[in-house]
Design a protein that fits this description.
two-stranded antiparallel sheet; globular; about 450 residues; mainly alpha; single chain; about 60% helix
Length: about 450
Amino acid sequence: MSLERWFGIAETGSNVRTEVLGGVTTFVTMAYIIVVNPAILAFAGLPVGASTVATVLVAALGSLLMGLYANRPIAVAPYMGENAFIAFGLAALGISWQQRLGAVFLSGLLFLAITLLGVRRWLAESISPSLKHSFAVGIGLFLALIGLYEGGVVDSFASGLPVAALLAPGTDLLRSPDVPLKLGDLREPTVLLALFGFLVTVALLLRRVRGAIFLGIAATAGAGFLLGLGKAPEGLFAMPFRGDYDLSPIAFQLDIVGVLRIELFPVLLTLFLMGFLDTLGTLVAVGAAGNLLDERGNLPRIERPMVVDAVSCVASGLLGTSTSGAYIESATGIREGARTGLAAVVTGGLFALSLFFLPLVAPLQQMRYAYSPALVVVGLLMVSSVRRIDFDDLTEVVPAFLTMTLMVFTYNIANGLTAGLVVWPLAKLAAGRWREVGPGSVVLGLACLAYYLFGLPH
């Protein structure tokens, strides 16, 4: 059977070349996770080499499963945000990294259970279309902020200030900066390259060039290398599962019993809600990016992507990495025209191949100026979903506004999602329109309220 028939490519109006290009684009855009995720988890005590292999394995397995089982052009990898929560957010509790992996595993099992029982779909379909589209807008703005910050166009206000200027008077504690962000140094070569990459990508999009985002990344990386701002790899090849890349120190080392304590309930609650809502928001956002949503803002046949997400999360706990699921950077490949699981298979295959070329991949991940413009462009394109928000209805606008703004301004997708889901039923009740509030909305609202009352919001 041909690839076109296996994935139903012709039915979507796509072709094999477009799907392959979309998968490659998604990989290039999100491959930074190979370097960033192990670096963050190192603060929790996980060895970097083993953690790198675990990260790549989960991304490869999850993406392949998403393509072959769910037939969706959506890649899977450990979540940014959840990894920081595991590394830094749990530091004060003094729990071991084995217990943290146990919490990831248990949250994955819970995801899988409620998915197979149909509860996740029921909850997803209880969310109003306006709120779902606000997920896409908020995540688009969030991606744009990440891209601008990674490219140096936007910088922390604290950057460049002496340490003494950042201390609270009379203490050795850091105070909040007077202004959180500022414009970056536009004379810095890497910042200029990021702006160059953005302009090139936009120009290619305006001319409707296929592969515009991928070509923009390639052109910017090439320019940076020619200018001496990209270094050659220290090596080309390394065998996984050996030496520094031996997985045994963390694989199957999770502590499940140790995390089943009442005082650690907030940990499980937070991981569960962050993972559940991040996945839901991502699926809706990438669906909106590719016009894959129905008139109610639902992603058709959402159960299979959710099963893949849950299985990937279980695998994360077993192999030794953080909560995993559908990745928002998949929108870059979808914007290139990818519509089927072949794109995810290509992405997963490239992750699997990278296991043998980790020294070769590393330099690309240092070229933030090359991939950051792609994130800004995708964010720009995703913001178009704002047109589908019902701005004539305040009970829809207020929760949508909180969702979008808190995602960006707290630098956490889960904060925006939970705030919107708590406020939506309250706004309906305040307007005397309680009949519009279904049981699923109440369950989600209460669960998200528990996140603020008993969880560990950050």
